[in-house]
Design goal:
Blueprint: E1 12-18, H1 22-30, E2 38-44, E3 51-55, E4 58-62, H2 64-67, E5 70-72
Antiparallel strand pairs: 1-2, 1-5, 2-3, 3-4
């Protein structure tokens, strides 16, 4: 399964699962990053970390190692 960290810039994908420590998963799930949610990688910092993503109309910055714990549906595209 691919991860958000491997997603090319500008591509929309759909979240399949969120892994990692319980507190990390809970924080993301409470913010609305649940399976089935479309996510788009907006920008990547010059040194590759962090990523800026668009989720439900808002933009978040997320570390690449955190993005690696967000699995995406293979071949799925988001709403945008």
């Amino acid at each position: 399964m691919n991860t958000l960290a491997e997603t090319p810039l500008g591509k929309s994908v759909t979240v399949a699962a969120v892994d990692g420590p319980r507190a990390f998963r809970r924080r993301l799930l409470e913010m609305g990053l649940v399976p089935g949610t479309p996510v788009r990688v907006v920008t990547v910092a010059p040194l590759g970390d962090p990523l800026r993503i668009e989720v439900r109309g808002g933009q978040w910055s997320i570390r690449r190692n955190e993005a690696a714990q967000i699995h995406i549906a293979t071949g799925a595209a988001g709403a945008r």
